[in-house]
Amino acid sequence: MAIILYICHSIKYLNNCKLTVMKTRIFFLSAVFAAGFFISCKENATSKINAENIETVKQEIAQSGEYPVFQFDKSEHDFGEINEGDVVSTTFKFTNTGKSPLIIARALGSCGCTVPSYPTEPIAPGESGEIEVSFNSAGKPNLQQKIVTLYANTEKGKELLKIKALVKPDP
What we know:
Layout (H helix, E strand, L loop, with lengths): L1 H40 L9 H14 L5 E3 L3 E8 L3 E10 L7 E6 L4 E4 L10 E9 L5 E11 L5 E11 L3
Parallel strand pairs: 2-8
Antiparallel strand pairs: 1-3, 3-6, 4-7, 5-6, 7-8
């Protein structure tokens, strides 16, 4: 009888061991799958652009000398005096006075409180577009001066827009 109990106990132990090994394998495979999923989702569209194609286009434009050109109605805007916590916006209008399509690759504010919106489609020669810039003055008392940098396929490669405001602190 003791032998039968010993055998039954051994079989239970082996089954528990097999179950533990199987759980470990499932957990490990799930972790590998999840890591692969998150890593692939971190890639953005700009990282997938073929740098060789961009270089070819740059060389073609450089050889022809026909760069697109930003012609802004203004390059600076003063919001004047505003209250802390106000969110204000302005629009910078521009025309492509160059001889090839203008492509704005990205626009970055110098601070998280400054958010630009820009056209993502190419602007044909002679056509116009707008860059809207919003400024959130929360936690930004006193004189504030911010810069928006536009990265584009112009001869200089980037253009700067400036905004400023005198923010009255909250009492």
